[in-house]
């Protein structure tokens, strides 16, 4: 199908679009269906024996050790509930180091001797599964011939039923570990880190007079940005299909220059998709809250409410799967790549972090007078210290070949990690550095000048979109994670560095109190010391300014521009000791993450390089040559007729074609020089460096020539959907 034909078909689909009938009815409101497919505490209370229910809730709410004797009762109730909802199979769902979701489905039916079958689901089956572990990324933790791995039931994340037109499946969130107990997934370290952070947060709460504080957990509210493109265009772009981003594409005449897409009216087709996805998310207990157009054309955002960190991570994975599935129903493809289109804003996944418990709520709420709120100031100081001391680990937690296209541009935070506190908190900590804080900037009032409008309260500080780690009123927003990433990685790092910082603070205050120092005096001395030693991380200015990297260097803040700059942070002695001390990773697990990071980086760029060579050789170059031939024939015909031939048009296309041929030859040579997959860290590093130093520049040269040709070659000959079509035909 030619470019014109694809464009016309896509336009017809948009014009003829009728949203699927998924709207809520009077008998089925959002509140009524919310969580209807979740084996929630409400469902468990109705279906489990009282003592079993209390035991399960003690594990979920208070972190008590799971009693294995209750497993049979829970499994039986879970099976009956799921089968009543049409489930015929169950699956242990886990999150391997691919960053994607993995699952193995098994039937409830067990054959019996008389040729019939019974539905069975034993407690041991609920608690533990055994998928093949040999073919997942492991970074040297496993050999290919060593296939045994275990999944283990995560009781703190509820099971759910996943619907399909042909039958439903009971999904059980699990961890995934090797037979030696080492983490092969993202969930295991997340649970470990959350436990470590909570333990030391509770020590501080006891110092503030909370004798028996409820279990402290981390909370996460991830904002998900994404693009939608018509599926005709997606399937006609091998680069989008295989790598998630366009490897070719000239800048369209109109992009996002007018800022007219941001918060604009949502196109009907997109709104139909959003409503459809939200209905499915509600049924799965995912609290989708906000939807809107993002900055770039074709870009949108959904923001769920805060949840416990491990549940938020599970829900994020489920959300992305749901979006992909529902988009196809509406004739579109959902793109989560951080930079699917060059020259327009990419997509992030802002991780909003807080910590707290069900007694006190969030521990990062400053109140009206934060200068008097010593408990808040201590927890806020813990964040400041943690981010300053372990900025490199935060940077590497968001490092990937795909996110490198986004970080550091004027659309996302710079690669330099810093904290934005806002005017009010920055002023309070400035006072603390010089002595006791005695005041806080008040909220203001905005008078708009229209009599019919009320006076509006204003916050004592503005927001900062350029800051990687910004305080936003009752939480910190980590803006650097990429839209394709699991939130588990950043949350593991935040939890662990917070565990160390809270441990440091609790130990200091406990020692001071034991030595007879007045508690308030000890707190004041500690806060002064922290802001003096770590205040360099606080930056309330413009992170996009050319002067910031210079100032950051003076402050001693690292600028880890690329993934390969950041990855060594994982295997420094201090990083490995930190994660081992708080029992999140051992040294082997840390080295495995480093090696997997190198492998994924090289594999990602290698796939893109081969795609660039294939598309350039088999699609773009032939189209350009056909155009050149048509122009040459026209020039010859005009000249033969005695007219003035347009030789300039022939020269205009000949130059870029020559450049494209040269660039393709150089890329082919660079690919031939690939070092090949290596099983050790040195080999993996060499392969990654080759991808960065040889493949990326060669791909850029091919693209430069091809994008020039896109502006020259006749539209009916150009083989790929253009940016103008993909971004604006929805």
From TrEMBL:
Domain GS catalytic stretches: 186-620
Regions crossing the membrane: none
Record-linked InterPro entries: Gln-synt_C, Gln_synt_N, Gln_synth/guanido_kin_cat_dom, Gln_synth_cat_dom, Gln_synth_gly_rich_site, GS_Type-3, GSIII_N
Domain GS beta-grasp: residue ranges: 88-181
Biological process annotations from GO: glutamine biosynthetic process
Pfam families: Gln-synt_C, Gln-synt_C-ter, GSIII_N
Entry GO MF terms: glutamine synthetase activity
Family of this protein: Belongs to the glutamine synthetase family.
Protein name in the entry: Glutamine synthetase type III
């Amino acid at each position: 199908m030619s470019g014109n034909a694809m464009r016309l078909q896509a336009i017809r689909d948009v014009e003829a679009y009728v949203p699927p009938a998924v709207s809520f009815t009077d008998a089925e409101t959002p509140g009524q269906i919310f969580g209807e497919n979740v084996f929630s505490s409400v469902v468990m209370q109705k279906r489990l024996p009282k003592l079993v229910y209390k035991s399960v809730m003690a594990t979920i709410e208070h972190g008590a050790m799971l009693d294995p004797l209750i497993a049979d009762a829970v499994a039986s109730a879970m099976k009956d509930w799921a089968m009543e909802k049409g489930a015929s199979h169950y699956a242990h769902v886990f999150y391997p180091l691919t960053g994607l979701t993995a699952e193995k489905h098994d039937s409830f039916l067990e054959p019996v001797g008389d040729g019939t079958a019974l539905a069975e689901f034993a407690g041991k089956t609920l608690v533990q599964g055994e998928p093949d572990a040999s073919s997942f990324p492991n970074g040297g933790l496993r050999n290919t011939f060593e296939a045994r791995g275990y999944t283990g039931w995560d009781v703190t994340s509820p099971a759910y039923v996943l619907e399909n037109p042909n039958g439903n499946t009971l999904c059980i969130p699990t961890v995934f570990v090797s037979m030696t107990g080492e983490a092969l997934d993202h969930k295991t370290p997340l649970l470990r880190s959350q436990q470590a952070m909570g333990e030391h947060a509770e020590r501080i709460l006891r110092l503030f007079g909370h004798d028996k504080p409820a279990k402290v957990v981390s909370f996460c509210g991830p904002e998900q940005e994404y693009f939608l493109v018509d599926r005709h265009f997606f399937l006609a772009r091998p680069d989008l299909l295989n790598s998630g981003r366009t490897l070719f594409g000239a800048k369209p005449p109109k992009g996002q220059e007018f800022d007219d897409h941001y918060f604009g009216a949502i196109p009907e087709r997109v709104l139909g998709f959003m409503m459809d996805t939200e209905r499915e998310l509600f049924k799965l207990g995912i609290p989708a809250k906000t939807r809107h157009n993002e900055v770039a054309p074709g870009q949108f955002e959904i923001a769920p409410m805060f949840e416990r960190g491990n549940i938020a991570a599970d829900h994020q994975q489920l959300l992305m799967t749901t979006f992909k599935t529902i988009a196809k129903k509406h004739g579109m493809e959902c793109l989560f790549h951080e930079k699917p289109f060059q020259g327009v804003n990419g997509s992030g996944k802002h991780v909003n972090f807080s910590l707290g418990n069900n007694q006190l709520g969030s521990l990062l709420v400053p109140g009206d007078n934060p200068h008097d709120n010593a408990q808040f100031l201590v927890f806020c100081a813990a964040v400041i210290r943690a981010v300053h001391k372990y900025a490199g680990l935060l940077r590497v937690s968001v490092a990937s070949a795909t996110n490198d296209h986004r970080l550091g541009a004027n659309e996302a935070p710079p690669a330099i990690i810093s904290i934005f506190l806002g005017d009010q908190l920055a002023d309070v900590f400035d006072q603390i550095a010089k002595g006791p804080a005695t005041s806080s900037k008040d909220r203001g009032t905005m008078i708009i000048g229209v009599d019919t409008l009320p006076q509006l309260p204003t916050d004592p500080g503005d927001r900062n979109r350029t800051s990687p780690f910004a305080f936003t009123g009752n939480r910190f927003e980590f803006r650097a994670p990429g839209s394709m990433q699991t939130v588990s990685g950043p949350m593991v790092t935040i939890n662990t560095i917070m565990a160390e910082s809270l441990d440091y603070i609790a130990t200091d205050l406990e020692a001071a109190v034991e030595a007879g120092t007045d508690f308030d005096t000890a707190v004041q001395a500690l806060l002064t010391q922290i802001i003096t030693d770590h205040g360099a991380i606080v930056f309330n200015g413009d992170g996009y300014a050319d002067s910031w990297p210079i100032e950051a260097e003076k402050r001693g803040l690292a600028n880890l521009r690329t993934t390969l700059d950041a990855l060594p942070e994982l295997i420094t002695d201090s990083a490995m000791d930190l994660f081992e001390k708080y029992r999140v990773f051992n040294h082997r697990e840390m080295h495995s993450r480093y090696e997997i990071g190198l492998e994924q980086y090289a594999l990602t760029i290698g796939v893109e390089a081969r795609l660039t060579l294939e598309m350039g050789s088999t699609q773009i170059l032939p189209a350009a040559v056909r155009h050149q031939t048509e122009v040459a024939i026209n020039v010859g015909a005009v000249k033969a007729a005695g007219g003035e031939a347009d030789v300039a048009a022939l020269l205009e296309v000949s130059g870029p074609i020559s450049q494209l041929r040269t660039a393709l030859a150089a890329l082919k040579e660079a690919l031939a020089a690939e070092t090949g997959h290596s099983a050790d860290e040195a080999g993996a590093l060499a392969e990654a460096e080759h991808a960065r130093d040889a493949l990326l520049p060669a791909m850029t040269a091919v693209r430069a020539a091809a994008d020039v040709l896109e502006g020259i070659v006749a539209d009916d000959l150009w083989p790929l959907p253009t940016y103008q079509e993909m971004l604006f035909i929805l």
